[in-house]
């Protein structure tokens, strides 16, 4: 079975957290074509900030976007979703995983048909990879390597971070043969999480922790590893033979004050221009025929969330606040599960 290992570089200082970035301009008119300026609020998970900053500039160069400005808020996917449900203004939401959009559907803030388009509501893909220190001094290449004594693994808290849920399910699915051997999968998760010294609130925060010197390996998105490479600090990463396909959703809110412009931006995210920007930032495109997409390897054992039963079943089995498998493991380890 082929394994793709690459030498990459990570980031020294990323400083994103829950920051809100406002573009110039103010909301003066409900119609961008009327000469006034429309301001849209983008609320997103932590990792795609660089991509969205470039995509917004490209959108503003189009007729549909020329009078549209943006505020941007980035943070842990679960935290961002809960913030919007609690009243944070959002015209477009871009999260790590579908349940964070579904929370807003249940709250009446996103239409129930948000995932019925050609890409089922997803705007980018990725896979979970294992990143290590340059030269991989502990020889960490497989899922079982992460459970060896003395190996420290960095991954975020799955009760705040969508990326953490992808990480956990990638390892579980690989070891359990896509859920057919649940005993082996759960045993792996117990051993893995015992080796995690700190669980930050987001994938980007975990990357900062790892770049800062803590841990022997980090579970992360492939695009985060590529982002790290582009920022200049050497690491290695391995795409495991068996890993999960990460699918990142985006939607327009029902209470947007500017639905025409918000829907235009959503459509632009699926354009060749925006998809190429995503590819340049390490994401796998959901559109076909995008230059550079062929650089991403296809793991022979790639699987999806549907192979594990789908998000509804997986959330109940693993992340239920009272009875979830991960809830029980984390409580035994003294890790907060208060934001399920």
How would you name the CATH homologous superfamily of the largest domain?
A: Periplasmic binding protein-like II
Outline type? globular
State Rg: 20 Å
Helix content: 25-40%
Oligomer: single chain
Q: How many beta-strand segments?
A: 11
> Can you tell me the CATH topology of the largest domain?
D-Maltodextrin-Binding Protein, domain 2
Helix segment count? 11
> What is the residue-mean pLDDT, rounded to a whole number?
90
Q: Based on the coordinates given, report the CATH architecture of the largest domain.
A: 3-Layer(aba) Sandwich
- Strand/helix succession: EEEHEHEHEEHHHEHEEHHEHH
In terms of structural class, how would the helical and strand content be classed? Answer: alpha+beta
Distance between the termini: 37 Å
**Which regions contain 5 or more consecutive residues with pLDDT less than 50?**
1-34
Count of the separate structural domains: 2
Strand proportion, as a percent range, falls in 15-25%
Name of the CATH class of the largest domain = Alpha Beta
Describe the main β-sheet briefly: 11 strands, mixed
């Amino acid at each position: 079975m082929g394994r793709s290992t690459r030498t990459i570089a990570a980031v020294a200082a990323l400083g994103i957290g829950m920051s809100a970035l406002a573009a110039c301009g103010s909301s003066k008119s409900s119609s961008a074509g009327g000469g006034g300026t429309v301001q849209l609020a983008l609320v997103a998970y932590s990792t795609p900030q660089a991509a969205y900053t470039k995509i917004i500039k490209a959108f503003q160069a189009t007729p549909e976007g020329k009078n549209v400005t943006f505020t941007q808020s980035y943070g842990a996917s679960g935290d961002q979703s809960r913030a919007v449900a609690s009243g944070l203004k959002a015209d477009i939401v871009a999260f790590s995983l579908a349940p964070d959009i579904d929370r807003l559907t249940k709250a009446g803030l996103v239409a129930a048909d948000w995932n019925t388009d050609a890409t089922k509501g997803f705007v980018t893909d990725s896979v979970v990879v294992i990143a290590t220190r340059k030269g991989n001094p502990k020889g960490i290449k497989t899922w079982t390597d992460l459970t060896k004594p003395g190996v420290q693994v960095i991954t975020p808290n799955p009760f705040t971070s969508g990326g953490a849920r992808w990480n956990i399910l990638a390892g579980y699915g690989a070891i359990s043969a896509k859920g057919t051997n649940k005993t082996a999968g759960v045993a792996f998760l117990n051993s893995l999480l015992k080796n995690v010294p700190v669980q930050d609130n987001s994938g980007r925060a975990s990357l900062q922790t790892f770049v800062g010197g803590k841990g022997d390996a980090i579970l992360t998105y492939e695009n985060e590893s590529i982002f790290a490479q582009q920022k200049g600090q050497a690491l290695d990463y391995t795409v495991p033979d068996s890993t999960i396909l990460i699918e990142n959703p985006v939607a327009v809110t029902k209470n947007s004050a500017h639905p025409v412009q918000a829907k235009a931006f959503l459509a632009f995210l699926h354009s060749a221009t925006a998809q190429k920007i995503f590819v340049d930032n390490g994401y796998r495109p959901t559109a076909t025929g995008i230059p550079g997409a062929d650089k991403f390897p296809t793991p022979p054992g790639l699987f999806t969330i549907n192979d594990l039963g789908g998000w509804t079943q997986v959330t109940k089995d693993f992340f239920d606040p009272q009875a979830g498998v991960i809830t029980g493991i984390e409580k035994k380890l003294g890790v907060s599960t208060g934001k399920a």
